[in-house]
Amino acid sequence: MRNKLVQKLVEHQGTFISGESLSQSLGVSRTAVWKQMDALKKSGYQIDSVPKKGYQLIARPNGIQEHDIHLYVQTKRLGHTVTYYDSVPTTQTLAHEWAEGGAKEGHLIVADEQTGGRGRLGRNWHSTFGTSISMSLILRPKLSPQQTPQLTLVAAVAVTRAIEKVTQLKADIKWPNDILIKGKKLVGILTEMQSEPGLAKVVILGIGINANQSEDELSHDERNQATSLKVESGLETNRAQLIATVLEEFEWLYDTYLEKGFSEIKLLWEARSISIGKKLKAQTINGTVTGMSTGITAEGALLLEDDEGIVHTIYSADIDQ
Ligand code: BTN
Hints:
Elements (H helix, E strand, L loop, with lengths): L1 H10 L7 H8 L3 H13 L3 E5 L3 E6 L6 H5 L11 E7 L2 H10 L7 E11 L5 E4 L5 E7 L9 H19 L4 E3 L3 E4 L2 E13 L2 E11 L5 H4 L10 H5 L5 H22 L2 H10 L6 E6 L2 E10 L5 E4 L5 E4 L3 E3 L1
Parallel strand pairs: 3-4
Antiparallel strand pairs: 1-2, 4-5, 4-6, 6-10, 7-8, 8-9, 9-10, 11-12, 11-15, 12-13, 13-14
The site of biotin has 20 residues, from helix 5, strand 4, strand 6, strand 9 and strand 10.
Pfam families: BPL_C, BPL_LplA_LipB, HTH_11
EC number: 6.3.4.15
Family: Belongs to the biotin--protein ligase family.
């Protein structure tokens, strides 16, 4: 009920909502509403309660609205405009729409909850209200469509660096761009593109971070063993600060990549990757390849050497490791 109540308050931010209408829409008594409001105030929510008018949300702890993120943003251009939604099916589709409407490179779409989050290889991505980070960044790089997968590796380096800066937790990268702690998934990255022949017109870089979810909130995830920053550190992460730090880290790595190519990023990626020098099983659309991973190519594809010494170049796959 707490989540739904917060959601209602967020939806009505800037206006009052009566105790009566809250109790009706949530199907609980007015006393229950009052008790929850009291609990929220004790946990740092600023809520105005005025007799006959009801309740108004003034400020939320750990918010990720534009003004929260802008407290921390120190980038040259990324994240200077932010569009926040409390609950959306997926920030990816919205970012595509904003890009089609002419949004500039660096425009960021964030949401407190996704109800139909998209993952790689057609999977779902689950984001819980108020505790996760779901963000999609609009990029307009001058790259060929074949080069854009490298951006997911740039992003993986940026996110692991940002996590380490903000939480001191050390995370590993699993090829191409899963971020794990002790083998459990913490971050997912999804790059989507709108292209013209020979040119990636728009790239939408989607990043989902399990930030403050409790173990219970993560247990839905059957396929991937998931974890969160809170589960790993026992501490609440300031989501706005982490988003701003991801933007900051991504900006300089992205600029380095655009200016100098992939070679410097490759070294940084390899230093944080757990996918090198191991026997891996790659499930590709053309079948399964098992072999020793000897590194990544200059394009970011994974090299797997099988038992016969044949080296396979893997561009897209699900990796078991
Ligand atoms: C994966 O590991 O499969 C990728 C997950 C990507 C999730 C992010 S959350 C923000 C953006 N919106 C989505 O629907 N997906 C990406």
